[in-house]
Design a protein that fits this description.
Helices cover about 35% and strands about 25% of the residues. The protein is built from 17 helices and 22 strands. The strands form five sheets. Strands 1, 2, 10, 11, 12, 13, 14 and 22 form an eight-stranded mixed β-sheet that branches. The protein is globular.
């Protein structure tokens, strides 16, 4: 067992933990980063699957993600735009496929008006929400005690309008059924992106990708930190008190003045604390849970949908794959589609055999793109729910009533222990931008306490 002393021990080598460690070192503090996995990056992971480069985790960069964009510039990383030329596809409740341009789906005029009205109402509410403290809104408790699906029912009787608006928050972001989280949680999700309109604008929220993959961010940050990053080192025990902490992993024991827990909230309880964390922390973590989404990668010999005049962008709350995009890798002449199967639909496909799972997913893709989608050269499913050190995607969210009740204590330090990850962010919540913001903020708080 290697024993070392540092000013700060960072637990978790994802974008947030590595950003915090980088900022701490810039301020003159010594650090050690302990990572349970055999790689850095957390929920960022670029890998070669059967000869295709796939981004198994997070991948997109939005124009408002200042913290991420500044980090990309600092690391010398280049970006490229997602392919979006041509017509988008929408499949309605009867299974009819329609093509369209712009953001509003090709639905009946009355349904279109209801969708536009809902977006306007949500934008107005979101404008009143501070993403860093949504619990401070005068109606926070009321909004946190009604599910998002029930809130939508109070706004319109148009079921197709409700299904489509619900899809952008439930399936596309929180990856939980709309009855399982509150209206306040939905408003936080939208506020973290600047507006609900931003969430429904695929050209905005899914704008660019990083050449070489977004995992380049943690890989290059870790490279700068060198031997201070320790892989295969899950922390089993964290002893803490007024004089500091001792983090005990399987390979390294670090004594430090401060600790940063840069892991998803549901993993915080995987560590034994001596003494135990305060009651408030114990309770709030029991009211947080991860969503569940399968990221589908299908690689074809050519991007055939482009020849057919399609952008690759497709939506339907009635399909197994509720959204899909052209995800062709930079410089690869082949075409890649990425799709998503979320919440209860994801439960369903994991209840069948691997072959039937593949068949059902490809059949759903074929409804958007035609029979050519049935025969990819490479097919891969990103299943973060089975990842030992993640256990879900994209991020943790509160159960009903939990955000107003516990949200204010999410980021509150416990003695020398600080918390930092995208799940805790305001702006950039559950995105890499939020992870980086949290890392910067957490490091600044520790620097101030340390008097560095």
């Amino acid at each position: 067992m290697q024993k070392i002393e540092r000013d700060v021990v960072v637990i978790g080598a994802g974008a947030s933990g590595l950003t915090a460690a980088t900022e701490l070192r810039k301020a003159g503090l010594t650090v050690a980063v302990l990572e349970a996995r055999d790689r850095v990056g957390g929920r960022l992971w670029t890998d070669d699957i059967d000869g295709a480069t796939l981004e198994i985790g997070g991948q997109w960069v939005s124009p408002d993600q200042d913290a991420l964009i500044e980090t990309l510039d600092d690391l010398g990383l280049e970006t490229y735009e997602r392919y979006r030329e041509g017509l988008n596809v929408y499949i309605g409740p009867t299974g009819e496929k329609r093509t369209f341009e712009g953001e509003i789906f090709p639905v009946a005029a009355q349904t279109e008006q209801e969708i536009v009205t809902l977006i306007e109402k949500l934008d107005a509410l979101v404008a009143e929400i501070d993403p860093d403290q949504p619990w401070a809104h005068p109606l926070a408790k009321d909004l946190d005690e009604i599910s998002f699906s029930r809130w939508l029912e109070t706004q319109t009787e148009d079921e197709e309008a409700r299904e489509n608006i619900g899809m952008f928050i439930a399936g596309a972001m929180l990856t939980k059924p709309a009855h399982a989280f509150s209206a306040l949680q939905a408003l936080l999700m939208a506020a973290s992106a600047g507006s609900f309109s931003n969430l429904v604008d695929a050209d905005f929220i899914l704008d660019k990708r990083v050449v070489g993959g977004l995992q380049q961010v943690p890989l290059l940050l870790a490279e700068r930190l060198g031997d201070d990053v320790h892989l295969n080192s899950p922390v089993r025990t964290l002893r803490w008190g007024p004089d500091g902490v001792t983090a005990i992993s399987e390979n390294v024991e670090v004594s430090a003045r401060f600790a940063v827990l840069a892991v998803p909230p549901i993993l915080i309880s995987r560590i034994s604390y001596e003494p135990p964390l305060p009651r408030r922390q114990q309770q709030l973590h029991q009211h947080l849970s991860m969503g569940f989404v399968i990221k589908v990668h299908a690689v074809y010999s050519t991007p055939f949908w482009r020849t057919n005049g399609l952008s690759g962008t497709a939506f339907s709350p009635y399909e197994l794959v509720h959204e899909a995009y052209d995800n062709s890798y930079h410089g690869d002449p082949r075409g890649t589609l990425v799709g998503f199967v979320a919440d209860e639909a994801a439960d369903g496909v994991f209840a069948v055999s691997e072959e039937e799972r593949k068949q059902r997913i490809l059949e759903s893709l074929s409804h958007y793109y035609g029979d050519e989608a049935l025969t990819p050269e490479v097919f891969y499913l990103s299943d973060w729910g089975s990842e030992e050190w993640t256990r879900g995607a994209y991020a943790a969210s509160f159960d009903m009533g939990g955000l107003a009740r516990y949200g204010a204590d999410l980021r509150t330090p416990v003695g020398p222990i600080h918390f930092s990850c995208s799940d805790l962010a305001g702006k950039g919540y559950q995105h890499v931008d939020g992870a980086i913001r949290m890392g910067i903020e957490t490091a600044a708080a520790i620097v101030e306490r340390a008097g560095a």
